[in-house]
Amino acid sequence: MILARRNLLIGGAAGLLAGCDRFTDSPVLASAEEAHRFLQRAIGRGALATEFRPEQRSPIFRVNGTYNPNTPEYNIWAGTGFADWRLKVGGMVARPMQLTLAQLQHLPQRAQITRHDCVEGWSAIGKWQGPQLATILNAAGLSAQARYIVFHCADRYGDGGYYESIDLIDAFHPQTILAWALNDRRLDVGHGAPLRLRVERQLGYKQAKYLVGIEAVASLAGIGKGKGGTWEDSSGYQWYAGI
Amino acid sequence: MPEGLPDRPRLIYRHRLITRLWHWINAIALLIMVGSGLMIFNAHPRLYWGQYGANFDHAWLELPRFPGWVTIPSYYSLAGARHWHFFFALVLAFGLLVYLLWSLANGHILRDLRIRVRELAPGHLWKDFKDHLALRFHDPRDPRAYNIFQKLAYVGTLFVLLPAVIFSGLALSPGMDAAWPWLTAMFGGRQSARSVHFIAMGAILVFLLVHLTLVLLAGPINELRAMITGWWRVPAEKQP
User: Fold this and answer.
1) Which of B64, B120, B134, B179 has its CB surrounded by the most CB atoms within 10 Å?
2) Which Gene3D superfamilies match (chain A) (predicted)?
3) Which of B32, B33, B82 has the highest number of chain A CBs within 10 A, making it the mutation to test binding with A?
4) Domain range B10-51+69-234, CATH class
């Protein structure tokens, strides 16, 4: 009797854990993302990510995700020092633009030593430099209907290119920059050459590398599978990655 | 009520509704947080001290991945585990907050959990320790009261371990780190906070193990009934 009860308890506990698997994709669980975003924005909408001193940087800033896009187009750009590469700024803007790397480097710059937090749990600290995204969006004349900024990348994932998106609160945040330098050197291929996004209050998978285009949109529905990013579409990662 | 008659079981109302509700909600939340947390840990099973820490940096602890029968979900899914973890993080944290405020208001904390100086006297601790070895967990003159080791375990879990695991978890969030940089700084950096988060989880598991062992030793049916219905049977007095 007691044995049977114990078996029932053990079996029940294992069954409960296995039963959990069925609810993993439940929209109820996923709703916590919105709650956290709401709470974080309520207490720190304009807050700045912590910045560090030069000696606090990681000795080695590891590479993660794509190490080299290795597409024919990218390899030609890389072979000529990205002289022929252009950043396309389009979508819901008054003045679509194509910017060269030199033009981006001559815009007002912001340098920041920040901590990169990977969703896996590791962190690395490095110095990033580039123009603020707000400068470019203001120059392009963002439409009043635009709600999100989508970042298109040169590296391929499945059917399309890597992409990510952020809302306008993060897009106009002063620490949101398009970085072309890491630790006072031009980005190498592993770290996203020639240009990557830094959106410092979110996790690593939001920091899109190998940028080729910025698109202002009113909705994320028509892009990729509609969840706002490559990892969001393919694996169910949270779109709001401030958690 | 015929007191002092040892053959008549005496029932007392021991746990209020708010205590019982919180106990079970918290128990479920904790199990899910541990299971999903171990899955998240599996994505990078190395721990560091300081602000940064990645594959090329020195890890003070590196563990093999936890097996599927202790993780939520049981198959490898960092994204899935994060959905579980951040939903039940809200249950755990706000549940604890409501319970502590409520228990302060209804007097539970000051009446039942407050540790008196005389209870910490070595003589008292030693007597209570010997009582534990003899499986006497209750003072027959005041059977409703918690013994000193019980109080230390509950107070330590409620006011140290659970807040530590909650706040160190908050310090891992890059959004929270921007909003409350002092929190991450308090732990000595994000990777230190991650280590504290893991250690506090381990300490809570130790509490859970001791707690369940003592429930079994004290009489699981009576203890379970008390935590479900509130009514607890005073054990027959054992002569010291």
Assistant:
1) B179
2) Oxidoreductase, molybdopterin-binding domain (3.90.420.10)
3) B82
4) mainly alpha
